[in-house]
């Protein structure tokens, strides 16, 4: 199973919105509404930010939203804040080898 | 409060073995599927293995199949990963993570270094 494709880096200024894409195939992202997104600060464990494409866990800011179209999922962060600077990973259910992650995107808040 | 605490990492020579443990608390461990996910230094996340709540269903990534064995002891609220025939490319922080449709809780990880 190949990794999902994410941009290596994105950046934005405080208050702006950014979108991170996550491209898979018809065997993973395109087949299941089981895309999740994780935020990871340096030296810390990943934290679930979005699950099942667009749902937010309790406690996650509504500035974070998710969507999917075909084989591509997206994470949008609106009203960027300094603490949003982190690495972001998408993940999709992929059948018999259940989970496949994206390569990760480094978000820089300018 | 849900807590997952990994242990057992360390330095091991190529070809060696190591057993990782993950102690769970704050939830009914026997009701949840569990996973191991690893992250090589400076690299992204890689799913390693999954085990169902009863232990009856198990999956492995191709990169570890035949070398790693996942198991759990629901009476001890513990998850394990037996790693044999270790290679340099297995060097990573290993996380245990809860869930099947998504991974909602993660431990802090334990570092495994495979080097001579």
List the helices and strands and how they pair.
The complex is a heterodimer of chains A (110) and B (116).
Chain A: E1 9-12, E2 18-23, E3 35-40, E4 47-50, E5 64-69, E6 72-77, E7 86-93, E8 99-101, E9 105-109
Parallel strand pairs in A: 1-9
Antiparallel strand pairs in A: 2-6, 3-4, 3-7, 5-6, 7-8, 7-9
Chain B: E1 3-7, E2 10-12, E3 18-25, E4 34-39, E5 45-51, E6 58-60, E7 68-73, E8 78-83, E9 92-98, E10 105-106, E11 110-114
Parallel strand pairs in B: 2-11
Antiparallel strand pairs in B: 1-3, 3-8, 4-5, 4-9, 5-6, 7-8, 9-10, 9-11
Which tags fit this structure?
heterodimer, A: 110 residues, mainly beta, six-stranded mixed β-sheet, 0% helix, globular, B: 116 residues, seven-stranded mixed β-sheet, four-stranded antiparallel β-sheet
Secondary-structure element order of chain A, N to C: EEEEEEEEE
Beta-strand proportion of chain A: 35-45%
| Count of discrete alpha- or pi-helical segments spanning 4 or more residues of chain B | 0
Instruction: Provide the gyration radius of chain B in Å.
Output: 13 Å
Structural class of chain A: mainly beta
What overall form of chain B do the CA principal axes indicate? globular
Helix content of chain B: under 10%
Most strands sheet of chain A: 6 strands, mixed
* CA-based shape of chain A: globular
Order of helices and strands of chain B: EEEEEEEEEEE
SS strand fraction of chain B:
over 45%
Which stretches of chain B are low in confidence, meaning pLDDT under 50 for 5 or more residues running? none
């Amino acid at each position: 199973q190949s990794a999902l494709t994410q941009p290596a880096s994105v950046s934005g200024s405080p208050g702006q919105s950014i979108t991170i894409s996550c491209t898979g195939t018809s065997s993973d992202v395109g087949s299941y509404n089981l895309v999740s997104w994780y935020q990871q600060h340096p030296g810390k464990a990943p934290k679930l930010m979005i699950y099942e494409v667009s749902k937010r866990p309790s406690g996650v800011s509504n500035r974070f939203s998710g969507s999917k179209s075909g084989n591509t999922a997206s994470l949008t962060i609106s009203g960027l804040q300094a603490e949003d600077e982190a690495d972001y990973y998408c993940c999709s259910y992929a059948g018999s080898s259940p989970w496949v992650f994206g390569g990760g995107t480094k978000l820089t808040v300018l | 409060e849900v807590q997952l605490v990994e242990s057992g990492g360390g330095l091991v020579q190529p070809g060696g073995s190591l057993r990782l443990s993950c102690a769970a608390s704050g939830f009914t461990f026997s009701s949840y599927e569990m996973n191991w996910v690893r992250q090589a230094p400076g690299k992204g996340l890689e799913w390693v293995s999954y085990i169902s709540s009863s232990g009856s269903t198990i999956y492995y990534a191709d990169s570890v199949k035949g070398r790693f064995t996942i198991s759990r002891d629901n009476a001890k609220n513990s998850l394990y990963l037996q790693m044999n025939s270790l290679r340099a490319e297995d060097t990573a922080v290993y996380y245990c993570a809860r869930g099947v449709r998504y991974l909602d809780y993660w431990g802090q990880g334990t570092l495994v270094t495979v080097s001579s």
